[in-house]
Write a structure and sequence with these properties.
The structure holds two protein chains of two kinds. Chain A is an alpha+beta fold. Chain A contains three helices and five strands. In chain A, strands 1, 2, 3, 4 and 5 form a five-stranded antiparallel sheet that branches. Chain B has two domains: 284 residues, no CATH class; 104 residues, Alpha-Beta Plaits (2-Layer Sandwich). A ten-stranded mixed sheet of chain B has the order 11-12-8-7-1-2-3-6-4-20, with helices on both faces. Classes of the chains: A alpha+beta, B alpha+beta. Chains A and B meet through β2, β3, β4 and β5 of A and α10, β16, α12, β17 and β19 of B.
Chain lengths: 99, 444
């Protein structure tokens, strides 16, 4: 099953950081997200877009995880040549993760 | 308990205007806030001001003020916005002129300044963090340096009787926190209340992003009537508890899910969201549905504000040239790849240039590995982008793409190209002592 079936997500950017939230549709699925969607797994899944460790914040109150990715220097929003310079589409790449 | 209703009239500089008018007309709000200043916007505005001393404020200021001032003046709605951008004083003068033309007299308009710290940064006498990065960038062309101010100048202007307040760089949630602190007389050291007020500001600051904008996903997260998306307002009680809602009958929706997405948007550690006013803690926030399109939020907390202020420094960062061309029908992908090979060879010899190629519709967003193409697409659009230190070199990218018409593979069409001078940003921290704010009033 794709992560998309269990959770929704929004991506934001700040300087050379991208933040990706992952929010369980149903509170009871949050345990599974917390167990399966580790920082290491996100880092491997989005490896081209990450420089350094991925940070993961657990917010049980919202049944949500929040990921913070440091982007490689040439991918920062103000310097990137990419079509999606902000990295706004990355959340949906995460939702494509097999779980 | 007394409540105050605060509405969000814009989530970015180019945002729709009609939802703000709807909110002013039908939202029974006391404050209408327009957040219009993205990271790079102020650097562009600073450039505009350098060319014309009366320029440098938001390009849609005139249109927005013409649309909302008559309603706001009639209903006594106070307007707060960072549309002052690089020139709040000129924005206030322009707003007075617009009010006059609309026959609105006696409107008190405040311009708050002090966020522009370009001279402080240029002087180099100030202890800055991330010094190495700054030193590297000083050799390039610094355009702007603006500190993120907090709520204080706005609270002061409200106490000074301002009906319209135009600021430069102010932290987005502070635009919303200021009227709450002013209305309820909250202490500027009651960190929990300031944390909750910052939560409300953070939820509202992107306007449509909490009412169903940037949320819809057919089959998973349906949103009704996005073409008529309503903008949000908050009904805030004196204890900080708030209900986020929107005008009845407007498009979109407000649910726990839209609120959670916006709550975590652009946040790093949810327990420590740094603003000039407070270190806000959103980790214990409670989100409850109390009715259709009515979400109650409470439980935002806070710790003492940071000793330094964030400063965004904008500088010129070379030139970017870009060109696109489409191929369709049998062999589209092979012809696009052939065009790419030609471009690589042609652009290799025209000077130092960093190149990137994308096949739009195939791999342009997330690259080869995540895209995993399984079949030949009917049409492909090749995009070439290059970054160089000179305009001439960068402009070779769109020129070479256009030259593919008569020199490249068969059947290319729809060429588009451009060359631009991008502005890059880096952030640093500055001591609060280096900054003083001022307020200037105009009366229509």
């Amino acid at each position: 099953m794709l992560l998309r079936e269990l959770a929704h997500s929004r991506t934001g950017d700040k300087g050379n950081l991208v933040t990706i939230s992952l929010i369980a549709y149903r509170d009871e699925d949050f345990v599974l997200l917390e167990e399966r969607v580790t920082a290491e797994r996100v880092s491997a899944h989005l490896s081209e877009f990450v420089d350094g460790p991925v940070l993961r914040y657990v917010v049980p109150q919202l049944s949500a995880l929040n990921f913070v990715l440091h982007r490689p220097a040439n991918q920062c929003v103000t310097r990137s040549l990419a079509l999606d310079a902000h990295g706004k589409c990355l959340g949906y790449a995460l939702l494509g993760l097999e779980i | 308990m007394r409540t105050v209703r605060i509405g969000a009239g814009a989530g970015y500089s180019g945002d729709r205007i009609d939802p703000a008018v709807e909110l002013a007309e039908k939202g029974s709000i006391s404050y209408l806030i327009f957040e219009c200043l993205a990271e790079r916007t102020i650097a562009l505005a600073q450039e505009a001001r350098r060319l014309h001393s009366a320029a440098g404020y938001d390009p849609l200021l005139d249109e927005r003020m013409e649309a909302v001032l008559p309603i706001c003046a009639e209903k006594k709605i106070r307007v707060i916005s960072n549309m002052g951008a690089a020139n709040p004083t000129a924005a206030a003068a322009k707003t007075r002129e617009i009010a006059h033309q609309l026959g609105i007299y006696g409107l008190r308009i405040a311009a708050t300044t002090g966020d522009d710290v370009l001279s402080v940064i240029r002087s180099g006498n100030i202890a800055l963090e991330e010094n190495s990065q700054l030193a590297e960038s000083l050799s390039k062309k610094i355009l702007s340096a603006n500190a993120y101010l907090g709520m204080e100048p706005i609270v002061e202007a409200l106490a000074g009787g301002a009906d319209v307040i135009l600021t430069g760089r102010v932290a987005d949630p502070s635009l919303f926190l200021a009227p709450l602190v002013y209305e309820f007389g909250w202490s500027m050291e009651d960190w929990d209340l300031l944390g909750q007020g910052t939560l409300i500001g953070h939820l509202l600051e992107c306007a449509g992003q909490i009412t169903g904008g940037y949320f819809a996903d057919p089959g998973y997260k349906p949103v009704p009537n996005l073409a008529r998306l309503g903008f949000p307002f908050a009904e805030v009680s004196e204890d900080g508890t708030a209900t986020i809602t929107k005008v009845e009958g407007s498009g979109g929706l407000i649910t726990k899910a839209t609120c959670k997405e916006q709550l975590l948007y652009e946040i790093q550690d949810p327990a420590a969201y740094l603003t000039p006013d407070v270190v806000a803690d959103f980790s214990q926030v409670r989100i409850q549905e109390t009715g259709v399109d009515r979400i109650r939020v409470s439980g935002g907390k806070g710790k003492p504000r940071p000793p330094t202020l964030k400063v965004s420094v904008g500088y010129h960062d070379g030139y970017v040239g870009e060109g696109q061309i489409s191929y369709a029908g049998p062999g589209a992908l092979a012809r696009a790849n052939l065009a790419k090979e030609i471009l690589i060879e042609r652009l290799r010899d025209c000077g130092q240039i960093e190149l990137r190629f994308d096949l739009i519709g195939v791999n342009s967003i997330h690259g080869e590995r995540l895209s995993e193409m399984k079949c030949e697409p009917y049409e492909v659009r090749l995009r070439a982008a290059g970054k160089a230190e000179s305009m001439r070199t960068a402009s070779m990218v769109p020129r070479e793409v256009e030259a593919l018409y008569t020199n490249g593979p068969a059947g290319g069409g729809g060429v588009a190209g451009s060359t631009r001078e991008p502005i890059a940003i880096f952030s640093t921290l500055l001591s609060r002592q280096a900054i003083t704010h001022e307020i200037h009033y105009e009366v229509s």
